Each structure stands twice: as structure tokens, then as C-alpha cells.
Amino acid sequence: HLKTAADMLCRSYEPGEQLLGLHLVRRYQAADPTMRQALRWPIRSLTQHRDGRVVALARTVLDEMTRTS
């Protein structure tokens, strides 16, 4: 699931798919610290998105990643 989320975040320009990917990362991030580290840059880049929902969720996920790492 986490690899699917990574693919969605890294390849998609569709806000709906990015939101779904972020929800998956949020759900599974604790399972794989290496993947979590690799996803930080793409998720950080989403905080510059035009869609406010994507920005809000990306910031929340980054905050959670920072707390759990």
C-alpha cells in the first residue's frame, strides 16, 4: 500500500489522487521508515499545491512524520 501511495504522489498531478496517496501514507507510514524518509520530499512539495485540501493534508502528514521519526 505504501508503495502505491508513493507512486500516486510522485506521478500524479491530479489533486484527488494526491489526496488518496496522502491518506494512504498517513495510514501506513509507521510500517516502513525507509519509505517514509523517501516520501518526505514529494510530500513537502505538495505544501505548495494550489488545492488547499492537498496543502492541508500534506502539512498534517509532514507534522506526523516529524513526530514519529
Keywords:
69 residues; mainly alpha; 4 helices; 0% strand; globular
Structure description:
The chain has 69 residues and is mostly helical. It is 80% helix and 0% strand. The protein has 4 helices and no strands. The protein has helices spanning 2-11, 15-28, 33-46, 52-68. The radius of gyration is 10 Å and the shape is globular. The two termini are 20 Å apart.
SSE blueprint and pairings:
Elements: H1 2-11, H2 15-28, H3 33-46, H4 52-68
Helix pairs in contact: 1-2, 1-3, 2-4, 3-4
- Identify low-pLDDT runs: none
Overall structural class, as computed from helix and strand content, comes to mainly alpha
Amount of helix: over 70%
Order of helices and strands: HHHH
Number of helices: 4
Kindly state the mean pLDDT as a whole number?
89
Counting DSSP E segments of at least 2 residues, the number of strands comes to 0
Give the overall silhouette. globular
What is the alpha-carbon Rg in Å?
A: 10 Å
Proportion of residues in β-strands: under 5%
Distance between the termini: 20 Å
Largest sheet: none
